[in-house]
Write a structure and sequence with these properties.
CATH superfamily of the largest domain: Alpha/Beta hydrolase fold, catalytic domain
Number of strands: 24
Oligomer: single chain
Structural class: alpha+beta
Shape: globular
CATH architecture of the largest domain: 3-Layer(aba) Sandwich
Distance between the termini: 52 Å
Mean pLDDT: 95
Radius of gyration: 24 Å
CATH class of the largest domain: Alpha Beta
Number of helices: 13
């Protein structure tokens, strides 16, 4: 692992290591409140000076990138590292019930840590995704030992992602379920990952109905937490309250450093946590790059930001911790820009209206007939690129999906000047449907001089009578929150908006019946109409300075 670690450190452009790994204690038993043993590996750096401590709690094992690699990287920079397997994973006692035990087990681990004779009261936590979620679970009540947290590409309320817009993140939910349910039985994990064996199996069964049975189809057995995902398919379900730590974020007083990506699956929720911190008087660092959830470049920045945070707040050295609180990568310009806050000051949401003939313009629309299309759940509109976990995420050519009859596009004239869009993006779509149950998916794209259309950001909203009401004219006024972005539309490029009723399998296809998510099998075709006229001016709102 030593040579591999050094190669990664070079590629990631990390600060020079100044010490070595003295030893690694394996399988240390940390007692949970109910007596379960939480297995923990401890990485010790060399040196006579007591080191600060970094805790990472993970459901993905204590080897690989979250154990061997990061443990070695941080220890070689004078940090004692604890890598703990979450309950029910990789030898830790109890059963893995995602999200529900992390608060109790995390606080129990902290109390154990404070009793150790070698612990000097300086603790930070770090880690991406689920390793970040566990930080939100305890940070508000951790006490004075916790000096800083670094929750990267993550959020305080995981259910907020599964059911975004009233829909269900099918591909990520079943893909992640399959990953964590089978990871300990894989004999050759590197080969398994290279062959994308789990992802390929998910893809073979992604259209199976009812979706409650997908665990048996893909994994070969019932998985209790998959059944929870599909049987409690609403943010309003009280089942999720114990796993929602968003209400604790405002009480966090320690420094926070957050890294995420414009195509990360949790971006809107992470920025909601950022705003909660700021409103409560905290002043977190935030860095957003042009990355997906699993991008290696994003991981490099996460490690660099963690090292800077530990150095500044546990070792009282400001080396590497930037003065600017917010740093954003402006896509389309390939440059980093610093701001005092998010969203950046000076950017105002301005409407770009949908017009007849597939036009997009800042002028309001004239009277016109709506654009009609048919959505068939048996042939659902596919997703191409965007924010999800499986292969094909990120920026992708939209030419094939934009040729479909169930996708309408609205395109501006070529821009005369560069246009920077930085902030929250929202759409207001006036739509009629032959059904009461359907989806509205909106995507913002950048079209270059050659006509190549590339996705920038998108969002979905599920329409049903409990959440949306028809107007007297029979139409719905649907507000769709898209992913935030920072995109320069260059002079000569055009802005494009896609409107459709699906993004399969990223979001589960709407079967048109309103039947329960877990058990639905019947399908109904929806005839849709997108309106663009003075009384129903569909638009996308782009934050710009002019």
């Amino acid at each position: 692992m030593g040579l591999f670690t050094q190669v990664v450190e070079h590629i990631w452009k990390l600060p020079r290591a100044y010490t070595r790994v003295a030893r690694v204690e394996r399988d240390v038993c940390v007692p949970a409140d109910d007596g379960a043993s939480l297995l923990t590996d401890i990485w010790w750096p060399t040196g006579d000076v007591p080191p600060p401590t970094l805790l990472m709690r993970s459901p993905y094992g204590r080897s690989g990138p979250f154990g061997e690699l990061l443990g070695s990287i941080y220890a070689r920079r004078g940090i004692r590292v604890l890598v703990q397997s979450c309950r029910g994973t990789f030898g830790s006692g109890g059963s893995f019930a995602p999200q529900f035990n992390e608060r109790a087990d995390g606080l129990a681990t902290l109390r154990w840590l404070e009793r150790q004779p070698w612990f000097d009261g300086r603790l930070a936590m770090s880690g991406p995704s689920y390793l970040g979620y566990v930080q939100w679970a305890i940070a508000a009540d951790a006490g004075p030992s916790l000096r800083a947290i670094c929750p990267h590409i993550t959020m305080s309320n995981l259910a907020g992602y599964w059911y975004r817009g009233g829909s269900f993140a099918l591909d990520d939910a079943i893909g992640w379920t399959a990953l964590v349910s089978t990871q300990e039985g894989v004999r050759f994990p590197l080969l398994h990952a290279l062959l994308r064996s789990t992802e390929r199996k998910v893809r073979r069964h992604i259209d199976h109905l009812p979706i409650a049975e997908m665990d048996e189809q893909i994994i070969g057995r019932r998985v209790p937490f998959w059944r929870d995902f599909v049987n409690h398919a609403s943010l309003e379900d009280p089942f999720w309250v114990p796993a929602d730590h968003s209400r604790r974020v405002a009480d966090i007083r320690v420094p926070v450093n957050m890294v995420t990506g414009w195509y990360d699956i949790f971006l809107p929720l992470q920025l909601a946590d950022y705003r909660t911190l700021v409103a409560a008087g905290n002043s977190p660092h935030l860095l957003i790059g042009p990355w997906t959830h699993t991008d290696g470049a994003g991981m490099a920045h996460q490690v660099r930001e963690t090292l800077a945070t530990v150095t500044a707040h546990l070792c009282n050295k400001a080396d590497g911790l930037r003065e600017a609180k917010v740093r954003l990568h402006l896509m389309g310009a390939a440059q980093w820009q610093d701001f005092p806050s998010w969203p950046p000051p000076g950017f105002v949401a301005r409407p770009w209206y949908l017009h007849a003939g597939g036009r997009l313009a800042m002028a309001p629309p004239a009277s016109s007939a709506p654009d009609r299309y048919r959505y068939d759940p048996a042939n659902p509109t596919p997703i191409v690129g965007g924010s999800f976990l499986s292969r094909g995420s990120g920026r992708r050519n939209q030419s094939n999906v934009e040729k479909r009859s169930d996708v309408h596009t609205y395109t501006s004239d070529p821009l005369l000047h560069d246009l920077d869009v930085i902030g929250d993006v929202e759409a207001q779509i006036f739509v009629s449907s032959s059904l009461e149950y359907f989806d509205v998916f909106v995507r913002l794209c950048d079209v270059d001089e050659t006509g190549r259309s590339t996705n920038v950001c998108d969002g979905i909203e599920r329409v049903d009578p409990r959440r949306w009401r028809r107007a007297e004219d029979g139409s719905f006024e649907i507000r769709v929150g898209l992913w935030p972005t920072a995109q320069r539309f260059r002079a000569g490029h055009r802005i494009r908006v896609q409107v459709s009723s699906g993004a399969h399998p990223r979001f589960i296809r709407n079967l048109g019946t309103g039947d329960p998510l877990a058990t639905a099998t019947a399908m109904r075709i929806a005839d849709q109409a997108v309106h663009h006229e003075p009384g129903r001016p569909s638009a996308v709102f782009l934050p710009t300075v002019r």
